Amino acid sequence: MVVLIDSNNFYVSVERAFQPYLKYMAGCVMSNGDGCAIALSNEAKLMGIRRGTPFFELRELLNQGKLWWRSSNYTLYQDMMRRITRIIKRSFPDQEIYSIDECFCDLSGHKYENLEEKGVELRERILKWVGVPVGIGIAPNRTLAKIANKLSKKTETGVFMMDTAEKIEAGLKATEIDDVWGIGPRYAIKLIQEGVYTAWDFVQLPEDYVLKLMTIQGRRTYRELKGERCIPMEYDRPDKQAIATARSFRGFERELPPMEEALANYVANAALKLRAQGSVCAKIFVYAHTSRFAVVTDRYSAGQEIKLEVATNDTAVLIKQAVRALRMIFVKGYRYQKVGIELKDLKPEGQVQSSLFDSVDMVKNEKMQRALRAIDGMNAVYGKDTIRYAVMGYEKKWFMKQEYLSRKFTTRLEDVIVVKAM
User: Fold this and answer.
1) H or E segment to which residue 201 belongs
2) Cα gap 227→232, rounded to integer Å
3) Most exposed among 70, 89, 142, 295, judged by the fewest C-beta atoms under 10 Å?
4) Is a pLDDT exceeding 60 seen at residue 227?
């Protein structure tokens, strides 16, 4: 059996955990730059608000006191995710963190336990210790666990277990085909045109027909819905093949220096992720563009790729090359909305091939690697960017708009909630 623990409306629930007065009010969490709604409370959904609704369409509801919203607080969300997964690991150690709000666990070692009862206990523990409600779905495989998890939202206990043929059949009949994990919008449209409206209709099709229509991935989903276990657990996530970082500016930027400062910060973040997975990159791609809503004559978009002589994860080298690429594509006079970086052609750190004309001093390079490890360690202890490169700046006037950002309740000492006894 497999269990999927999924936090309910995760971003909204985290905000409510530290601001309980928001609990029964309609609310949403905004995207980067406060552009649109990306997470909604159940009350907001009942009001007809959808994910992706632009900020300006919701402003009147806020002014009327019918809706609250918060800017995305990823530092808080990541920390709460780590706390939840640690609690889960106490009950189910074989764990795969699938996303920031979802976690799969293999229950092969729990054959003789009452899994439904244990799921209820786990849910109550998470709610008590962290304050975030979760849904728990238990089923023979990952695809069915996804369906069970969705059905758990409608139960009083918040736990649903699909452990019999009758429950699986009922679950499949209650699941529309476009809600099945592994079936995207394009295939869902094709299946609906063929008269397949639910997951139950889907498993009635001949397997050869599914293979012809949807290739091997579709057959894997088909077999999982029939109860087979075809998708293995991934306890160690594979290394990323590319690392990208980009943000919209708070307003618009016309000058090169603030864009270089923003880009340097994005490169530093990407380089940290690169070193964390023990990789180096051989190519850098830098791009910048204006707003897509600008009049045609004021639109501009360009990108530049630079191939490094020797693959590296040295932040200083990557910043230097990224800034060089930005200067190649920057055209004065445009109002830029975004700049971004992508580190490409990644490979393991131990497989770096030197250039025939490379003049890098190996001793100096080793010293730099030790310095980078020391910098990463100090920033981890004393806070992000405590030690930084000068080009990264300090004022960050270009930083994305976060006008409704809540406090970092769990990671910043001055933001920790203080309880006073009178």
Assistant:
1) helix 199-203
2) 14
3) 295
4) yes
* Owner of token pair 């009862």: 117
Q: Contact, 41 vs 26, CB < 8 A?
A: yes
Phi-psi region of 227 (alpha: psi -120 to 50; beta: other; left: phi over 0): left
Q: What are phi and psi of 301, to 5 degrees?
A: -150, 135
Residue 354 corresponds to which amino acid? S
> d(Cα 414, Cα 422) in Å, to the nearest integer?
21
What CA–CA distance (Å, rounded) separates 422 from 406? 27
Residue 395: both structure tokens together: 């004022």
Which pTM does this prediction carry? 0.78
Q: What pLDDT is recorded for position 133?
A: 94
Residue 281 has what DSSP assignment? Answer: E
Per the structure block, which two tokens stand in for 46? 């009942």
pLDDT of residue 61: 86
Cβ-Cβ contacts under 8 Å for 263 (sequence gap 6 or more):
286, 319, 322, 323, 326, 339, 341
Task: Summarize pLDDT for 377-407 with one digit per residue, the tens.
Answer: 888 887 777 888 888 887 777 776 777 888 8
Pairing between β-strand 102-106 and β-strand 336-348 as defined by DSSP bridges: unpaired
3-state secondary structure of 248: strand
Question: Got the DSSP string for 10-60?
Answer: HHHHHHHHH-GGGTTS-EEEE-GGG-BEEEE-HHHHHTT--TT-BHHHHHH
Task: Give tens-digit pLDDT for 46-71.
Answer: 988 898 888 888 888 888 888 898 98
Q: Distance between CA atoms of 174 and 187, rounded to whole angstroms?
A: 19
Are the beta carbons of 254 and 262 closer than 8 angstroms? Answer: no
How far apart CA 57 and CA 50 sit, in angstroms, is: 11
Judged by DSSP in three states, 223 sits in helix
Q: What percentage of the chain carries pLDDT values higher than 90?
A: 41
Tokens found for residue 56: 């300006």
Q: How far is CA 104 from CA 107, 120, 218, 398, in A?
A: 10, 16, 21, 38
Q: Looking at residue 263, what DSSP letter applies?
A: H
Task: Tell me the mean pLDDT in the region 367-380.
Answer: 84
In our burial notation (b when 16+ CB lie closer than 10 A, e otherwise), range 31-62 reads: bbbbebbebbbebbeeeebeeebebeebeebe
